[in-house]
Amino acid sequence: MNYLNVKQIEEILPHRHPFLLVDYIEDYEPGVFAVGYKCVTFREDFFQGHFPNEPVMPGVFIIEALAQTGAVAILSKEENKGKIAYFGGIDKCRFKHKVIPGDKLRLETKIIRQKGPVGIGEVLATVDGRLAAKAELTFMIG
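RE: above sequence
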């Protein structure tokens, strides 16, 4: 297993707090897959307004956390080191369960296709085995 802590993730991704949404990578294989986690706390900036009486992690942040996890897999390939992975599209996106403070969000990305600098990742976000979100994300290496 290939574990990465937050400092090692910062060596791969350009994101920083408060927008770095992956706390650690449990395992990954460059160009193939990555599994990471986001420990959701009440102190997240977005909970102040989403929603004040019922804090729920916005879906766009769940998708961004999944994209960052996938970017670790793509950008850890030797030929992509020092580059940036950009969003190219989001398809088949579904939200099935809300994510709230105290949840440990498991983020799984599997690269299913890649041709040149463009590829597609199949992504799943779960909390305690329950599906929170799934999608196909298109990325472009720049």
